Amino acid sequence: MKLTVNGTEHEVDVEPDTPLLWVIREELGLLGTKYGCGVAQCGACTVLVDGYATRSCVTPADSVEGTQIRTIETVEETETGRRVVEAWVENQVPQCGYCQSGQVLAATALLTETPQPTDGDIEAAMTNLCRCGTYNKIRAAVHKASEA
Amino acid sequence: MGILDKITARAAPLNVSRRGFLAGSGALVLATTLPVRPTKAQEAGAAAEPAAVQAFLELRADGTAVLRSPFIEGGQGIYSAMAQIVGEELDLDPMAFTVESAPPGGPFGVMGGYRITGGSASTRTAYPIMRQLGASARAMLIEAAATRWDVEAATLITEPGAVVDPDSGNRLGYGELAEAAMDLPVPTEVTLKEEADFRWLKTGMPRLDVRDKSTGRARYALDVEVDGMLLAAVQHAPRLGMTPSAVTNQAEIEGMRGVHSVHMLDGAVAVVAEKFWQARRAVEAAEVEWTEGEAEWPMPADFSSTGFRDTLAGSSGEVVEIEAEGDAAAALDAADTVIEAVYDAPFVVHGQLEPPSATARFNDDGTLELWLPNQAPEQFVGAAAEAAGIDPAQVTLHSQMLGGFFGRHFLYRTANPFPQAIALAQATGRPVKLIWTREEDFLRDAPRPLGLAKFRGAVGEDRAVSLEATVVGEGPTQRWYNAPPGSDPSASEGISGKSYALANKAIGQIPVANPAVIGYWRSVGHSMHDFMYEGFLDELAEASGQDPYEMRLQLLSGNDRLTTLLTRTAELSGGWKPGPYEAEDGTTRARGVAMASPFGSEAAAIAEVSLDRGAVRVHNIWTAIDPGTIVNPAVIEAQVQSAVALGLSETLVEELVYENGEPTARNFDMYEILRPYMMPEVHVEVIESGAQMGGVGEPGLPAVPPAVVNAVAQLTGQRVRSLPLSKHDFG
Ligand code: FES
Ligand code: FES
To answer: Cβ contacts (< 8 Å) between A15 and chain B: which residues?
Structure first.
């Protein structure tokens, strides 16, 4: 099947229902997308599918043929993604960092859709888990990125 | 002596030495040699290590510096702290350092001959050593410049990264001096900087790895790739102690796409495949017959967490004394008002977001290389050698950055994937990377033990007069390091080690073995015992008609450090106000207060709660921490935020339930952890009292659960003695 990831079309030979997460990591070698739970609970595996934050661990690869998939590796190629990364650095958001690829992409999707989110918008959209408890810094960084 | 005692011991005297074997490399290379108190694993580790990487600090000709951290980075900011400390004395911008994790053995046993990453002990044990290391290097660079310019060393100064002669204006970068400095003797005495001259220490400078962690570039054990490796997945026996006797559909799963081979291991079935997803799909399809095996701690088939709690509550064995003051029993007998209570807290999983993994490769010469997450490199080397049946000297360990740890990555038999990875690499003759799915992690984690304590207290008019507290159970330090009951802080800390001046008290332990494989969890015994003690203290306050905040101040009278801490916490919250009261948003709220003395630091917290459809909602946490002496206030603030979140998580929702010897939850769908919407505002104040440096990674946690539970009692009149709050109905 053909998947378009970070603007490049890739021919991949996998079982059609292979989760997108493992196609990205094992077939394309893009390791910034993380495995945390595999059951759509944590969001560590978040990627953008046509701009929407999507949990790739439960997304069958054949269901996203013909879409534009973006991973953390190219998030800074978008203006919003670049602002989000800068806000993450400025607010010193990450601790262990393992959830943060997903958090940055979730924030990028939110700010693309809603450039000036309220706390309520952030609460509704930023549902990824962080075991290190960086939630307050995440919220502050989303606000920061929305100001720029 | 328990490991937690060991790690709080002062670091041994220090000797900085030049690494002679690297002379001529054009770099200034420094290590420390410490009087070593070797353990078996350490001797092993020391012998195993490639000599050329023993150095702590390498200052290269191009002006860059490489620092090898004895401690492993997992979000606590330890790499940055090490660079900040060395950089300060060396006078080199900490951001110019590359920090790597130090290999096992060699000079890295900075905790008096050994090292672990735990006990909130890294910075406080390494601080004097790292400063001396930086200062020694700086002195040698100055000496080298003085020789070059033919001036007195004492007339020279440094600016970040360069030696400067103020008289002549001459200036040489550290890189240009590194080789000459390497030929000089290491000074036997160096003067450390005065605090007033600090450029970076005590500032909230940014951490080194934040950009990589914000852009997906940070790499963890789960991302390790080795040429020619196969990927493996396992299915563990649902109950620990069982082992596979047959895979009835073996031929079928061997025929699945990408599958290399199927293996029956001790307690698990493994599938090795070209890709992890293929291995996982196949191992989940395996139909396995399980039989009783030979595990050291088999789970009884009828084990349940509820039953175990009842066992602890019903235990009436001999009490081993931990602390005694006055005559608690006599005071209890003489008192008019005596109250009793039993408190408990459940098993909880670590839930670090990166699932465990291990990559193993046997090289042609028979040596073994391992890439894995760990908090104790030397211990892992020893255990890996044993698993592989080779000499520890033949094991090379590459410690990876940790995607969270909280105690998950200590050496716990049956809880670490590496013995399986080694077995599979041996069986296949190929490098193997084994990943445990989240489900397998839940099944074999070494959870925080379910804990229980019994309290009896006597009150008089306006004061508590006697307290008897008995913890029942087993701590991880007894399990893993043979600490005897009564001398195992992990079994009682938070009930023992409290600072309140009670005239009569008796703290003891009834040792009861825990059938589960138990482990260290962020703040260890404190994570539950401070909840129990501080909850009961509020019960005593109520029984004696005292305000809980005023009662604590009374019990701390004469203790300036803790009085300051408590009053500053109250000030931070806008003044002590227990409530209930109506907030601006119309919710009815109340507050609770609690304190803790964990890991050499002091902490206090005030929580503000309301009820939302029968569930507790936490709005604010105000907390002050006094680690005595600080390195980086921003890192401390971040660590306290993180510890508060984990403390809230266990208070509000976390509980690992066992039935029939098996955990009932296998992933975050059935085991709730703190979600973003549950996170309150967290207001942190860092107080530097000047006392001896304490830890910062864990101390922010223990005061949080009791502050919340005390607030809930204030709000509802309901005293919660069993966590988490989610299992209670607040109507
Ligand atoms: S790994 Fe996909 S949501 Fe957790
Ligand atoms: S930073 Fe560690 S899980 Fe979020």
So the answer is: 257, 281
What is the reported pLDDT for B28?
66
Chain B touched by A12 (CB under 8 Å) = no
Full strand arrangement of the beta sheet holding B432-435:
B259-265, B268-273, B230-236, B432-435, B357-362, B368-372, B395-399
Indicate the helix (H) or strand (E) that contains B699: none
For B618-674, give the secondary structure using H, E and C: EEEEEEEEECCCCCCHHHHHHHHHHHHHHHHHHHHCCCECEECCEECCCCCCCCCCC
**Is residue A107 pLDDT above 90, yes or no?**
yes
Nearest-CA residue for ligand 1 atom 3 is A40
| Residue A48 lies in domain | 2-73
Tens-digit pLDDT profile for residues B396-438 = 999 999 999 999 999 999 999 999 999 999 999 999 999 999 9
Q: Smallest CA–CA separation between A66 and chain B, in Å? A: 23
Contact assessment for residue B592 and residue B709, using Cβ atoms and an 8 Å cutoff: yes
- Nearest 5°: phi and psi at B363? -85, 170
ipTM of predicted complex: 0.98
Query: Of B400, B435, B470, which residue is a domain's last?
Result: B435
End residue of a domain, out of A73, A89, A113: A73
A58 and A95 together in one domain = no
Domain stop point among A42, A73, A104: A73
Q: Give the pTM.
A: 0.93
Min Cα distance A26 → chain B (Å) is 7
Q: CB contact, 8 Å: B206 with chain A?
A: yes
In one-letter notation, the amino acid at residue B380 is F
Are B454 and B393 found together in one domain? no
Ligand 1 binding residues, C-beta < 6 A? A 35-38, 40-45, 55, 57
Selected residues 374-433 of chain B with any CB under 8 Å from a CB in chain A: 401-406
The tens digit of pLDDT for each residue in B455-479 reads 999 998 888 889 999 999 999 999 9
**Which atom of ligand 1 lies nearest, measured to the CA of A34?**
1
Q: How far A88 CA sits from the closest chain B CA (Å)?
A: 6
CATH number for A141: 1.10.150.120
pLDDT of residue B360: 98
Q: What is the pLDDT of residue B190?
A: 87
Give per-residue pLDDT as tens, B587-612. 999 999 999 999 999 999 999 999 99
pLDDT of residue B128: 85
Residue B273 Ramachandran class (φ > 0 left, ψ -120 to 50 alpha, else beta): beta
Rg (CA), chain A: 15
What is the residue whose two structure tokens read 């999507």?
A54
Query: CB contact, 8 Å: A60 with chain B?
Result: no
Residues B193 and B313 in one domain: no
A32 CB near a chain B CB, below 8 Å? yes
